[in-house]
Write a structure and sequence with these properties.
single chain; globular
């Protein structure tokens, strides 16, 4: 897909949910979430380029275009899109580029700069939307959830505050005593928040085919 072979795992049945891992991690980040999600949804997770079992890119590429290609491969016209940290940036770009394909958006401890991941920027050469997503947050009109821990990096907490001010239909949840990433530090609380939000969107998805 897009000149790459993406390693993925697909589990469950129902409306699609796609999980985007953070930088320097891989799809195993979501081990604690896949079981509960797959009881209600078709759950897709994959290793982004250069992580896990997916080879590093040979040149510049757009991570959000890889996501589109993967959804096209499975004929998923729409999906709930969940991104953590760097995966949140990919999710934001995808939601702005193809909003009609995002039923709802979940951003966990979202990151939208590569300042703290210089190795990732130098080796993987990711291309992002221009103008940048964080300058276009008012355009995110789908239901959006942002989840952070109150002990996370101050930059990521500031990102959550900016989202809360500028995204029209946003729900913000702050988990007390939690750092980064919240789904690993407090999986039960994270899963409850995530599932409550996704299941609340079910009525909006009535009548849609599970795989598009």
């Amino acid at each position: 897909m897009n000149g790459a072979r993406l390693h993925y795992e697909l589990q469950g049945d129902g409306f699609p949910v796609v999980l985007l891992h953070g930088g320097l991690l891989d799809l195993r980040l979501w081990d604690g979430q896949v079981g509960p999600l797959a009881q209600h949804f078709t759950t897709l997770r994959y290793d982004q380029r250069g992580f896990g079992k997916t080879l590093a890119p040979e040149g510049p590429y757009a991570p959000h275009e890889d996501l589109r290609a993967l959804l096209d491969h499975f004929s998923m016209d729409r999906a709930h899109v969940v991104g953590l940290s760097f995966g949140g940036r990919v999710a934001l770009d995808f939601a702005l580029a193809w909003p009609e394909r995002v039923s709802c958006l979940v951003l966990a401890a979202p990151e939208w700069t590569l300042d703290n991941m210089r190795g990732l920027a130098e080796v993987h050469h990711p291309r992002f939307l221009e103008p940048p997503a964080f300058t276009r947050l008012e355009q995110l009109l789908m239901p959006t959830l942002v989840v952070v821990g109150d002990r996370d990096n101050p930059v990521l907490l500031s990102n959550a505050e900016l989202l809360a001010r500028r995204v029209p239909t946003l729900t913000r949840v702050t988990l007390p005593g939690v750092g980064h990433p919240p789904n690993l530090e407090r999986p039960e609380d994270f899963n409850r928040v995530l599932l409550d939000f996704l299941l609340a969107q079910a009525s909006a998805s009535v009548g849609e085919a599970p795989l598009g």
